[in-house]
Amino acid sequence: MAESIERRMAAAETGGGQVERVIPVAPPHGTASHGGRASSWLAVTVMLAGFTAAGVALCLGPNWFVFWVSVGVCALGGILALVFDIFSDVIVDSPRVIRAAEHHSPFERG
Q: Do residues 81 and 47 make contact, with C-beta atoms less than 8 angstroms apart?
């Protein structure tokens, strides 16, 4: 998507070096997937497993060795998330226009 924006920006250049404003447009609703990549889900799963294990370790004792190992697993998941660039999986939908449903309420003013 970034490449297409850059191409549109380059195509929008006119004489005198002026550039028209280009607004990225999301695909129509229902065509984009919010599923993410498998590598992103791997990073999220590693962080979730570390967080859960740390919580269990605190409840059982607390077992500080397991807790700190779990904190390390969470940190590893965070590093994986940075390496896999999971924030690039975000898909921005086009704005939805929802009309208000007609209703007849005794409390309605107007």
A: yes
Asked whether the beta carbons of 72 and 50 are under 8 A apart, the reply is yes
Residue of 2, 86, 71, 6 whose CA lies nearest to 38? 86
| Closest C-alpha to 4, from 19, 18, 23 | 23
Q: What is the pLDDT of residue 109?
A: 65
Contact 103, 44 (CB under 8 A): no
Q: Specify the pTM.
A: 0.56
Say which residues have a Cβ less than 8 Å from residue 47's Cβ, sequence separation at least 6.
Answer: 73, 74, 77, 78, 81
**φ, ψ at 64 (rounded to 5°):** -70, -30
